Structures are given as structure tokens and as C-alpha cells.
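User: Design a sequence. Structure:
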């Protein structure tokens, strides 16, 4: 990441796809790496760009939510989506799901042409 982007940015979760799209277009090296954590304001997150030389595996799993799939959320485990590439058409939906369980995480982000490719590297789980 360039030196100008080394400061954190606070955004509303609903603007995440647009933020990632702008970041992917702006940066030459991919994937991008971010530290993401909940912000004090409901619906907001803080993102800190990090330097990376890491790569992602080509294969991964799909994450998609639709109104009919939401009824089955109790069957999903957050651990199913950690440490492996996840393909999703909506970074917003995926991160909204993750933030139900996690307070913060480091991730790699790239765009494959028709889907986001995201890999969660490290995470901090909500304290009970």
C-alpha cells in the first residue's frame, strides 16, 4: 500500500464494497491486506491498510446470503470461513456476518472479476 493509505479509515459497513473496489483499482500489488475492527458507532468499522507479500490459494469456498438462506444462519460456523479464501459477491454481507462473532481481524482482499476473494488471516472473537 502506498504511504498515503497507511492511516486508518472509518467507514459504514454498507460502503465496504465501494471502498474495496476503489482500493483494488488504486493499488498495483494484490491482494490487499487490512486490519478491520468494530468502531464505537453502530454499523461502522475501522480499516487499516497493511503491507503484504502474501498470496491466496486459487481454490476457496462460496459465501452467499439471500432472504431464504438467512433462516439457516444458525447452521453456519464462523470457523468455516477462517484461514481459507472465500468468494462472495458482497463484502458487506460477508463482513456483516463475521462481525456477529469477531471483534477484529486481518484479511487479504482481491477481486476475481465477478466476486470478492477474501481470506481471514487472524481474528479476535467476542468475549462472552
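Assistant: Done.
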Amino acid at each position: 500500500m502506498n504511504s498515503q493509505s497507511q492511516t486508518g479509515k472509518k467507514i459504514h459497513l454498507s460502503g465496504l464494497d465501494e471502498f474495496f473496489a476503489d482500493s483494488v483499482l488504486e493499488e498495483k500489488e494484490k491482494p490487499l491486506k487490512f486490519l478491520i475492527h468494530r468502531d464505537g458507532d453502530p454499523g461502522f468499522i475501522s480499516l487499516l491498510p497493511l503491507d503484504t507479500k502474501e498470496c491466496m490459494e486459487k481454490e476457496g469456498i462460496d459465501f452467499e446470503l439471500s432472504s431464504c438462506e438467512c433462516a439457516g444462519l444458525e447452521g453456519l460456523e464462523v470457523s468455516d470461513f477462517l484461514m481459507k479464501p472465500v468468494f462472495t459477491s458482497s463484502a458487506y454481507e460477508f463482513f456483516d456476518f463475521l462481525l456477529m462473532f469477531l471483534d477484529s481481524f486481518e484479511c487479504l482482499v482481491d477481486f476475481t472479476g465477478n466476486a470478492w476473494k477474501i481470506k481471514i488471516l487472524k481474528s479476535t472473537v467476542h468475549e462472552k
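Residues 3-125 form one domain. The longest helix spans residues 16-26.
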